[in-house]
């Protein structure tokens, strides 16, 4: 029986994936790193920016310097803070209703390769801010998706809230990226993929694919994976 839902954030809760890509590609260009949006969506979406930047630097320079990676991350965060998507964060239709309905049914957490500051800002004043038990971000986990580390860490921390320990196969992950799907599966967790970023036919690795959470009954969804 499923006892927890673990949400990715960008592309699942917040409709800001495009804005993040725009800012990331812009700052990479400033540092002489070429990355098109098509390349990002095809190869890197779902990875945390630290891992993506390190791979790009290694491909160009044969190595990745931690200080330079941090500079690029800081500059990208600065650009995103000024982006209209950060000034007025948009949540996907149906997400708030889904979370409200799921709250009495199971534990909930956010496990995202995004930065905590950006997640907190987007959720400030929303029902979701109070409904989830915890948030695990790239600031908490040094390894990005498709490595399962962030989902395993979220499971570990969720178990601080429960008497009967949760198992990985009792946690449903909701993702929008191929890297995220692989991370969840490597952690031993079932995955619902939302076709908010990729076409549904590119998400076939997931256990189930839906267009979005709009109109989805969480109780029926949890039964579906029973």
Structure description:
It contains 11 helices and 6 strands. It is of the alpha/beta class and 226 residues long. 46% of the residues lie in helices and 11% in strands. The protein has helices at 17-30, 37-44, 49-61, 66-82, 84-87, 95-102, 116-123, 127-131, 149-158, 178-186, 218-224; strands at residues 4-7, 107-111, 134-136, 171-175, 191-194, 208-210. It has 2 domains: 4-16 and 89-224, HAD superfamily/HAD-like (Rossmann fold), CATH 3.40.50.1000; 17-86, Orthogonal Bundle (DNA polymerase, domain 1). The mean pLDDT is 93. β4 (171-175), α10 and β5 (191-194) form a beta-alpha-beta unit. A 6-stranded parallel sheet has the order 3-2-1-4-5-6, covered by helices on one side.
Which stretches are poorly predicted, pLDDT < 50 over at least 5 residues?
none
Apparent shape: globular
Q: Tell me the number of strands.
A: 6
Task: Provide the gyration radius in Å.
Answer: 17 Å
- The CATH superfamily of the largest domain bears the name HAD superfamily/HAD-like
- Can you give the helix content as a percent range? 40-55%
* Amino- and carboxy-terminal Cα gap: 5 Å
Question: What structural class do you assign from the helix and strand content?
Answer: alpha/beta
CATH class of the largest domain: Alpha Beta
The total count of helices amounts to: 11
Task: Give the ordered list of helices and strands.
Answer: EHHHHHHEHHEHEHEEH
**If you average the pLDDT, what whole number results?**
93
